[in-house]
Design brief:
This protein has 414 residues and is an alpha+beta fold. It has 3 domains: 109 residues, Rossmann fold, CATH 3.40.50.80; 62 residues, ATP-grasp fold, A domain (Dna Ligase, domain 1, 2-Layer Sandwich), CATH 3.30.1490; 204 residues, 2-Layer Sandwich (D-amino Acid Aminotransferase, Chain A, domain 1). It is built from 14 helices and 17 strands. The strands form 3 sheets. It has an 8-stranded antiparallel sheet with strand order 14-13-10-11-12-15-17-16, sandwiched between helices. This is ATP-grasp domain-containing protein.
Length: 414
């Protein structure tokens, strides 16, 4: 069945604003199901559903079931707009397999083209035991890791500090650094007060190094490296609610050629082995010039706008085209011939305290501020306030320029 609007796309995710921005700039008619509903989303979409508005809630009140809500409202919007051609699933549904499947099933009924990894590929990408196993066989480095079920509380067989993390986690949520036996017992005791399932948790060696990521584009067989990115994790000046929360990126990374070569080798190996399609991301930690693989994000990563800015390329358009027969050769040529035009720093600013809604207009009018909170309610402590995207000729210039915008924000909310 031929669609009336072949250049239309529904974007579903926790934060769709960066994706809809680029798709709209590339000429697509964009529809969105989004959790927060940032102020600078609306001008780029034809229609939308905002979860927090529909349910009159906030992140803290809705976070336990937000994947269900994303699926429910995606199905609702697809029912309303059956002429949409493409479906793009962003962040928030990596490990919510049932909710992802519900959206995909609905899209099949109305003949949408899914520009996402298939469900079996997503599951493969998120199977950390499988990924670590194939990497170790090839001689690549991964942290020592085993199930919490196999972990002896009385005879701890891993040096402190180590990491306790949920198998299914994203953005640094449910990741804890355990410094000693006292903090271990305390954390386990707090878990036991909730619905704690030991099989869902991993004990992992703590790798003290530089967090980085790799953004790739592939067609299920071939793969090109888009960018290798410095990751900004848990920086205090950005007020993250927890220590390992994702707070941004610097693109390109500024790593050595040998470090980047090894990261590219691992990323290409995994992309082919998993069968990834479109744009996806891999996380690493560099220790003593050696990359340790951490996890795969089988979707467009949070660093995408920083990569687009640094390369001056519309990557979202290439993502959709990578699912079209006959386009790969041109996509590969574009990526191979691309060069970085600048360094681009993305920072995610969180609220250190409750921020009154009457201050948001001043913050939103600052240059380089994106993902702007709509001034209709107060921003609660720990919630994301905005994103900063700052380009410059050097890594330090870019990073410091973005930090200066944080200083301007702090002056407003003092």
């Amino acid at each position: 069945m031929m669609k009336n609007n072949p250049n239309s796309v529904l974007v579903v995710g926790f934060n769709t604003r960066p994706l809809v921005y680029s798709l709209n700039k590339a000429g697509y008619d964009v529809y969105a199901v989004d959790f927060f509903g940032d102020l600078d989303l609306y001008s780029h979409v034809k229609d939308f559903i905002i979860i927090t508005k529909e349910l009159s809630g906030n992140y803290n009140s809705l976070r336990e079931r937000y994947s269900k809500y994303l699926a429910d409202y995606s199905i609702s919007l697809l029912q309303k707009h059956q002429n949409i051609n493409f479906l793009l699933i962003g962040s928030g549904l990596d490990d919510a397999y049932n909710d992802r499947e519900r959206i995909l099933n609905k899209s099949e009924v109305i003949n949408l083209t899914s520009v996402n990894n298939c469900l079996s590929t997503v599951k493969k990408a998120r199977d950390i035991d499988y990924i670590f196993k194939i990497l170790k066989v090839r001689g690549f480095c991964v942290p020592i890791s085993f199930s919490f079920e196999d972990f002896g509380l009385e005879n701890v067989n891993l040096d402190f500090p180590f990491i306790l993390k949920k198998r299914r986690s994203a953005g640094g949520l449910n990741v804890f650094k355990i410094e000693d036996k006292k903090s271990l017992y305390s954390k386990v005791k707090s878990f036991e007060r909730s619905n704690f399932s030991p099989s869902e948790w991993l004990v992992q060696e703590y790798i003290d190094g530089i967090p980085v990521s790799c953004t790739i584009i592939s067609n299920g067989i071939e793969c090109e490296i888009i960018s290798i990115n410095r990751q900004i994790i848990g920086k205090e000046f950005l007020n993250p609610p927890k220590n390992f929360i994702y707070c941004g990126n610097i693109v390109p990374s500024g790593l050595s050629e040998s470090e980047e070569k090894k990261i590219a080798e691992i990323s290409k190996f995994l992309a082919k082995n998993i069968g990834l399609r479109g744009i996806n991301g891999f996380d690493f930690v560099i220790k003593n010039q050696t990359p340790f693989f951490m996890e795969c994000n089988p979707r467009i990563p949070g660093s995408i706008r920083a990569s687009e800015s640094a390369l001056n390329i519309n990557l979202l358009d290439l993502h959709i085209k990578s699912f079209t027969t006959g386009e790969w050769k041109q996509i590969s040529k574009i990526i191979k011939s691309s060069t970085f035009k600048c360094f681009s720093t993305k920072l995610v600013v969180f609220a250190l305290k409750t921020i009154e809604k009457n201050l948001l207009d001043k913050i939103n009018h600052l240059k380089f501020v994106h993902d702007k909170t709509e001034p209709i309610r107060n921003v609660l402590k720990g919630e994301p306030l905005c994103t900063i995207l700052y380009g410059a000729n050097s890594l330090l210039e870019s990073y410091n320029g973005a930090k200066n915008i944080v200083i301007e924000i702090n002056k407003i909310i003092e």
